[in-house]
Specification:
Distance between the termini: 30 Å
Helix content: 55-70%
EC number: 3.1.3.64
Number of strands: 5
Shape: extended
GO molecular function, one term: phosphatidylinositol-4-phosphate phosphatase activity
Structural class: mainly alpha
Domain SAC: 1-167
Keywords: Membrane, Transmembrane, Transmembrane helix
Largest sheet: 3 strands, parallel
Strand content: 5-15%
Number of helices: 13
Radius of gyration: 26 Å
Protein name: Phosphatidylinositol-3-phosphatase SAC1
Strand order of the largest sheet: 2-1-5
């Protein structure tokens, strides 16, 4: 709790009032995170920090992305209170921004980017109306050319951040880029999620090592001969996946090319299916040997 308190104290000093917008699921594995976050904010009892929880996936399920307006309406008064920074032509400060929105989801990439883009557009609209670029009542959405540039800029920003952190472009960028959720967007989100799962488990360790080395978290020892990055893999690292793929392929072939009798086909399917399932179970049991874990900082901790 002390670290939590000190973190928000520093945020308040730097940026003013804090509006926390928690977008995680309020059920399943993400629920304890939402509950703990809310509990810590309440325990802090700081009037400069407010907390709003919005179950993004539940509210926007079944393509009901128009329900994001519920959250925007909930935040509108606070955003107007925060205002924005504005100086006149003489350099005199006209208005100052007095707070920030601190939105989060699990990785603070996909859901967060959607909400931040909506908040940014609302703030920009208020500024353009104040400067007379837009008349009162005019909306940015009605300016087709600018709206296209704005949405693409935020979608590109989301992709750049996501590729750096998760290894793929951001999810939900079809909404950020077009203002609509599409079936193709859902398919691409599924594909990117699969790629993220693979990279997170089988290639991110080396990338974390690169970051640790760049940041100085790992100090190279001059007398250290063999590089800690070169780790000899056990035989099962290659053998088990090959066996599993072959067994699964044979199971599919047996299903497609049935034998003379159904009992013969069933016997082959059960044999190869059991082989693939058993091999997969062994891989799961020895999961740490297959995952690409960071080696540099992990090695220092072990030493």
């Amino acid at each position: 709790m002390d670290g939590f308190q000190r973190h928000f104290d520093s945020q308040i000093i730097s940026y003013g009032k804090q509006m926390i917008v928690n977008l995680v699921n309020q059920k399943g594995s993400e629920k304890p995170l939402e509950q703990t976050f809310a509990k810590m904010v309440n325990s802090m009892a700081n009037g400069m920090v407010r907390y709003v929880a919005f179950d993004f996936h539940k509210e926007c399920s079944r393509m009901r992305w128009d329900r994001l307006q519920i959250l925007m309406d909930q935040l509108a008064e606070q955003q107007d209170e925060f205002s924005y920074f504005l100086v006149d032509s003489d350099g005199k400060i006209v208005t100052q921004q007095e707070g920030t929105f601190r939105s989060n989801c699990m990785d603070c990439l996909d859901r967060t980017n959607v909400i931040q883009s909506l908040l940014a557009r609302r703030s920009l609209q208020a500024q353009l109306q104040r400067l007379g670029v837009l008349h009162v009542g005019q909306r940015i959405e009605e300016q087709a050319d600018f709206e296209k540039i704005y949405k693409n800029a935020w979608a590109d920003n989301a992709n750049a951040c996501a590729k750096q952190y998760a290894g793929t472009g951001a999810l939900k960028t079809d909404y950020t880029r077009t203002g609509k959720r599409t079936q193709w967007g859902l398919i691409m989100d599924g594909w990117n999620s699969l790629i993220r799962y693979y990279k997170n488990n089988f290639s991110d360790g080396f990338r974390q090592d690169a970051i640790d080395l760049f940041l100085g978290n790992y100090s190279v020892d001059e007398v250290e001969h063999a590089s800690p990055l070169h780790v000899k893999k056990d035989w099962k690292f290659l053998a088990l996946p090959i066996i599993m793929v072959v067994a699964f392929s044979m199971c599919i072939i047996c299903l497609l090319m049935a034998g003379e009798t159904w009992t013969e086909t069933l016997a082959y399917v059960l044999f190869w299916g059991s082989a693939s399932f058993g091999t997969f179970a062994i891989i799961l049991y020895n999961g740490k040997d297959f995952v690409d874990a960071p080696k540099l900082v992990q090695k220092e901790k072990m030493d």
